[in-house]
Structures are given as C-alpha cells and as structure tokens.
Amino acid sequence: MKNLKDDKIAERLHALADGQLNAKDRREVLQILENSTELRGEMCDIYRIKDLVQTAYPLEDFEHKMPSRQFFSTQLFSKVASYFVAFLVTLAAGYKIHDFTSSGITSGGFHGLSIAEIKPQNNKVILFLGSSEPAKFMQTLSKAESLAKQFEKSDGKVYVVTSSAGIDLLRTNTSPHEGHIKEMTKLYPSLHFVACNNTLYQYKKAGKPVELIESAEIAPSAVEFVVKHLQQGWRYIAI
Amino acid sequence: MLKNLFRPKRFERQLELQIAAHRPRLYRLANSWCGDRMLADDLVQETLKKALLKQHQLKEFSRLEAWLCRILHNCWMEYLRVKKPAMDIDDVTLQHDQTPDKELTEQQVVERVRHAIIMLPLTQRQVITLVDLEGSSYEEVSEILEIPLGTVMSRLSRARLLLKERLIGIQNIRSAHARSTHQNHLRSVK
User: Fold this and answer.
1) What is the pLDDT at residue B150?
2) Do residue B82 and residue B1 come from a single domain?
3) What pTM does this model have?
C-alpha cells in the first residue's frame, strides 16, 4: 500500500533541493535529514538527477545547433539583441543572489547538535556555482572578492564551490578568469576555490580529463561539502 | 490593461528583443519535450509568433519567461491534439534507438539521460524540465501548465524517481568514482 507520509517527505526533499521551501520548512526538513542516513542518500540522489538533467541539455548545444532559419532576418538584429540581453543580464545579476542565511536558515548538525544549537558564523561563507553562464562567473568572483576583502581582518573564510557546469570557472581551457582567480587567491588567503570531484569524474569517464587552474582545490562531493559546512553554521549563497 | 495600451514604443522594442533572445532556451525546452529538433523549432517559431502578436497581454516584464513557456506549452498541446487526437498525453513517449548497454562516453551519457527523460510520461517530463532546465519555481510551473501546486510536486517527485531507476548505471559511477579518487594526487579539502 502506498505510504502517503513517505510521499510527503519525498516531495519536501525535492522542494528543498529546488529552493522552494521557506526558512521554517527548510529547518524542519534539515532536522529530518539529520536523523536519517537513508534520506540523506535520497537527497544526494535528487541533486544527482538534477545535475544529470542539466548536463544532458547544455544551453550552448541549442544555441549553436539550431536549424538554419532565422526568427529575425538580419544578423545585425540578432547581434544587437544579444548585446542588449547580455547588458540586462549583467544589470539584473545583482538582484538574483539568494542569501539563505539572511532569511533564517541555520541548519543543524548530523552528529548530535540540534539546529537551535548551531551558531551562524557570519564570516564563514560558501558561494555555490552550478552554472557556466559568463554573467554568473562575474557575479561569483565579484561577490567572493568583496567578501574576502570584508573578512581580511576578522579571520573569516570564503569557499567558492563549483559543481556541474559551474566547474568551467576553474578549468584552464574554459575559464576566462584564470589570471584573476590566481591573483585573488594570492591576495586573500581566506579565499578558496573548490571543484566537485563527482563532476570531475564525469568528465574523466567521458574521456575528457579536466585540468584545473593551479589554486583550485577538490572536494569529494560538492553537495556533501555544502551540507557539512551548513551544519557548522556557515552561510550559504547560491549564485 | 489600460497601462499596457500606453506602453512606450521603446518598451515594445525592448520586449521584442527579449522575446527573440529567449529562443535558444525555448528551443531546448521544446526539444526536451518532443525529442525532435525540427518539430521543436516549429513549436518555438509558433510560440514566438504568438508572443509577438500578444505582447500587450504580458502584464509584468519579470514574468516574461514563464509567459513564453506557457505559450510554448499551449502550442505543444495544440500540436498533440491535432496530430494525436485520441491519445492520452500521459502515454506520449518517443522512439529512441539508443541502447543502455553501450559504453558510457560523454555523448552516450547525454544520450542516455535524454532518452530517459523522453521516455517519461509527458506530464512529468514537462514539470521536470521546467524546474531543472528553466529553473522555474513550483508556482510558475503550476501557472504555466495550469495544474495545482500539489500536482507539480507529485509529478516532479515521480519523474525523478523514474529517472533514478532508469539511470542506475550512471548513478553507480559515483561510487566507482569514490573508490578511484583514493589514488589521485590533487589537493583535497574536507
């Protein structure tokens, strides 16, 4: 017989993964996750499926391989349109950052600590990047730099965690910001760039091993890395 | 509505540019729904044509993407009604010649995932692609597909469960990966 309660919990896990829960519900679901290894495994699977769906339909595949007919007749028109959109995207980028901590998320630990006991650490921040959109690269670096500057004298830390397409920020052959990242990591010892090993493995398995920029570090799994740090009171900002 | 009638020409021009710029995203979404590039292109053409004709109906500029997805959904439903009038849309699945046992090269992983998505019931396929590809909120999906929020959640949950079952081989890569990473020489963080 179908277990309605299980269905409800599953739906809430999906909603958590999709950023669709309010602060109160998020805390409740994290509390449930705290007590169940099985559900934490399911949560990882949900992120994995999301990653796979996104990997299967990269936008650039559909930008470059569209059938030849054009919606608007002149190429000039398309060029103007793309410049205009790039401008709007950059302009709007500042408003798209979601800071979950400011809306009340302070998650509990998986190992004995309850959510209420965790003290949020305002100078420890994870920036999570899962997209290869150039505007998001810029947004991530600018946010990371401003936080690192801010934390210079307060023993703070910033981890830029990349996963899925976001890993392009740290690949030598795809990142337009390699020099900038090197400079930033030299200038701000508190700033770290992290790549998800699961994503690297996908590339390796596909016969395309990834070369990361010098200062990049590796985490076994981006999801686990983020969850673990959330349990320690780190702030989390998804770009 | 009155406000829309008096929108400046410059705004209309910007809206047209924005609509045109959404073409690749709509094309990707249509492709994930129907699995046929030419048909997807036709659906997007139809969508953009309708969007330009009805642009005065867009109430909020910030809702443009959801509005375009809604038009695309209507065009797709219209196509199915005309081409396959007797078929329940939940039964619409597409043919695919990929076999799951081939070696997993990058392209094959992509093909296998696409295959698994295209084999989902249409109603689930639409929900998961809107959420995961378009980044639509559940509320937006509910508006675009004209279904209750609870239905969005249950379809999404079922779609991901089916994908998990069908992509089990790819899932396993992760654990194999964990074993293989013991030997790498890259710096790691915990």
Assistant:
1) 93
2) yes
3) 0.54
